[in-house]
Amino acid sequence: MASMRLLAIIAILVQGLVIGDSQELPSFDPELAVAKVLEVAEGKVGPDVKIFNVVDFGAKPDGATTSTINFIRAFKEACNHNGRAMLVIPEGNFVVGSMLLSGPCTFQPPLMVQFAGNLLPQDSTVAAENADWITFMNFNGLFISGKGIINGQGDKKAWKSVCDGCSRQSANLKLIKLNDVLINGITSVNAKGFHMMISVCSNFVITNVNISAPDESPNTDGIHMSKTNKVRISDSIIGTGDDCVSMIHGTTNVTIENVKCGPGHGFSIGSLGHYEDEFDVFGITVRNCSLSHTENGARIKTYKNESPSKASGIIFQDLIMDNVKNPILIDQEYAALKGSVDSKVLISNVEFSNIRGTTISKIAIVLACSPTFPCQGITLKDIHLEYSGPTDHNEDTPFSSNCTNVKVNYIGEQMPPPCA
């Protein structure tokens, strides 16, 4: 009976992701949701839930035998089940190659994934172009919970091939064309490319995850989003060689809170204006987060390109900076493409509020906006940053801000001083 009540609660949580105003974030209590999903991850489910254990389909947890086809078969059976289903990845080391786990499916949502094992790539060399590693695609309802580890085994050999304009490397976990997703507790280590790549999705909750890669690993974004609506990321640790969280075109209604970022390139909106016919970005809130020894803190970046779009309704609030190089940055000259022109991305209604801590840069705030489309409605409220960089040079350079093509609304304390 208790298990039945648990499943009923989970069903309500899933409904809570999709009911209500389309512009609102999921309204259920994340702590309650995670507590219940943890029970499911421990196998506390009712008799009406059919278990699909990858080992029962021939997968070997020995760290040597390739089990790709066994994982795919287990997923397909769960996908095609006419009822509640749980895919189980038990403890052990599983070697798997590139996997596309795709619907449409007939299970009663959500598909629960009890993830306790460690996943290792079949080939530790550089992945083939655009061959992502583990991809969930094209169905509704997915709960992944457990202490499992996705280890991309990225190394210097893989990362040295990454350069500006080169093809990206494989993502550890790709989630595409999915609705109503909760990811809890898992760890992603040393991805060759992005750790989590989310595209064309809606209603996402990511909580209590741990993402790590060395500072010198390029393009290993922690969580990368595009064309996705309603996302909540919370209570997680992300440290990589690139953006902790990156949000590009078509990303809307995102809340990021209680996330520790570092090393990496901070929380980034963009790059925008890279592709033709990009969708707008709006409704982004980053709050109650900390950044330590990162390249950037709160950043919006756009290409100098012909592609027009808009980025608006953005709040960076209650952020703690620890020796961050660029704590507050709008960069509309991020990269110049062939035949580049002034950026045509209009950035408006952006607030940086209660941002405190230390920076290694004498110019701590840079707002470099487009001369063709100057930034509008930019507010800096209660900013207190202190210089913590080297003192043996630039002693005559004042601690300052730099603003171009923007009129800033200043409220409360401002350190460094406002732009002239």
* CATH architecture annotation name of the largest domain: 3 Solenoid
The structure class reads: mainly beta
What's the helical proportion of residues? 10-25%
Number of domains: 2
What shape does the CA trace take?
A: elongated
Strand content: over 45%
- What's the CATH H-level superfamily name of the largest domain? Single-stranded right-handed beta-helix, Pectin lyase-like
Mean pLDDT: 88
Number of helices: 4
Cα-atom radius of gyration:
22 Å
* N- to C-terminal distance: 68 Å
What is the name of the CATH class of the largest domain? Mainly Beta
Low-confidence stretches: 1-28, 125-129
Largest sheet report: 28 strands, parallel
Task: Determine the CATH topology of the largest domain.
Answer: Pectate Lyase C-like
Function: May function in the depolymerization of the pectin in its walls during pollen tube elongation, or in that of the pistil during pollination.
Subcellular location: Secreted, Cell wall
Organism: Gossypium gossypioides (Mexican cotton)
GO molecular function, one term: polygalacturonase activity
